[in-house]
Design brief:
The protein has 356 residues and is α+β, with helices and mostly antiparallel strands. The protein has 2 domains: 119 residues, no CATH class; 177 residues, no CATH class. 30% of the residues lie in helices and 19% in strands. Bound molecules: zinc ion (ZN). Zinc ion binds next to β1.
């Protein structure tokens, strides 16, 4: 039985399969004439999946008091917590059965029973290896908002730092990004008014505390229009900003997609995946009109930490424009405004849910 390059999102696994230079049809996702990989005990994918599956323990071998909430079937863990497969859980079972054929295989019990990660319920392990220690993201938010702002111990920075290094991204010199401002008239804003606000006008934002200037840019005109929350009949100035040098940022959204096959400690990565997902959502979360500036504190803390490590900014998903992304640049002088246009917003499309 063969799997193929299209069965996977994970680039490491895709590379392993492509390196085999073997073409054919996939028995799992039904792709035709693609790079394939034969499964079974001789498969080169065994090395990769052996170390990943070692992280999991069948329910019967876990302590009796192990929390039910951490237990699930292996295929569900692999499909919903990791970004490895382009397959359904049923197809993942098919893949694993073919990779580990025979009920005498030592990994067979993992495919039958629910499984869990022992360390997820080990307080001393979590204290050392989770970015929130043996606490939770919610406890960190509560502490930084209402208990201790400047000496928060909620985030295990020494654990977070190596992961941030895995999601670095460079905007090459000459890259164009966009920023919009709602203008008072059809004249729009002059080019020198489109940059980051000066420190005396810098209000608190997702990535900056009040008084700290930060340049918020988007990947497209459309994303920046969404982010500026323009209204019907608004005039909007959209500026193009060009990177004047290579600018290195970290991409928060990619933390939860780090490959288990990159050689880092898989157990440590596994216990942090849910925190990384939470962090990515928190950073991208749209703020509502009546939200408190205190709600920005957790992300401001993270940004100050990222800045202290020498990174020039951080990228995050746009919650306002699907597939769009934004970047907060801590050093606005790394981009220069090269052009500005004025737009007249003709109409908007409202999407809403009825709540009561
Ligand atoms: Zn396939």
């Amino acid at each position: 039985m063969n799997c193929c390059v299209n069965c996977f999102k994970d680039r490491e696994i895709q590379a392993v399969i492509k390196n085999m230079q073997l073409q054919g049809n996939c028995d799992i996702c039904a792709s035709k004439a693609v790079y394939i990989q034969p499964l079974g005990s001789e498969s080169t994918l065994r090395d990769n999946f052996d170390v990943l599956l070692d992280v999991y323990t069948p329910e019967d071998n876990l302590p009796e008091e192990y929390p039910e909430i951490f237990l699930d079937h292996l295929e569900n863990h692999l499909c919903y917590e990791w970004s490895i497969f382009n397959l359904t859980p049923e197809q993942v079972v098919q893949f694993l059965m073919a990779l580990y054929p025979g009920s005498d295989d030592s990994r067979a019990p993992l495919l039958v029973h629910k499984v869990g990660i022992l360390e997820k319920d080990d307080e001393s392990y979590l204290q050392e290896n989770s970015i929130v220690g043996n606490s939770s993201w919610d406890a960190f938010v509560e502490a930084i908002k209402f208990q201790n702002r400047f000496f928060s111990y909620g985030i295990n920075n020494s654990v977070l730092q190596p992961f941030l290094n895995l999601v670095k991204k460079t905007y090459k010199k000459g890259t164009i990004l966009y920023r919009a401002r709602i203008a008072p008239s059809a004249n729009g804003f002059a080019i020198d008014k489109m940059g980051a606000p000066p420190r005396d006008k810098a209000t608190s934002g997702r990535a900056n505390s009040e008084g700290i200037s930060c340049l918020y840019l988007s990947d497209s005109e459309e994303t920046t229009l969404h982010e500026a929350r323009v209204g019907e009949y608004d005039f909007v100035s959209i500026a193009q900003f060009e990177a004047i040098e290579d600018v290195e940022v970290v991409n928060i959204a990619l933390l939860s997609e780090i490959s288990p096959f990159w050689g880092s400690d898989i157990t440590q990565l596994a216990v942090n995946l849910s925190n990384f997902k939470r962090l990515g959502n928190e950073v991208a979360k749209p703020m509502r009109r009546h939200d408190s500036p205190l709600d920005y504190l957790p992300t401001q803390y993270l940004c100050d930490y990222i800045k202290s490590l020498g990174h020039a900014g951080f990228e995050y998903r746009s919650a306002m424009n699907k597939d769009g992304s934004n970047v907060a640049i801590f050093y606005p002088e790394k981009f220069r405004c090269i052009h500005v246009s004025v737009f007249d917003i003709q109409s908007l499309e409202y999407k809403y849910d009825k709540l009561s």
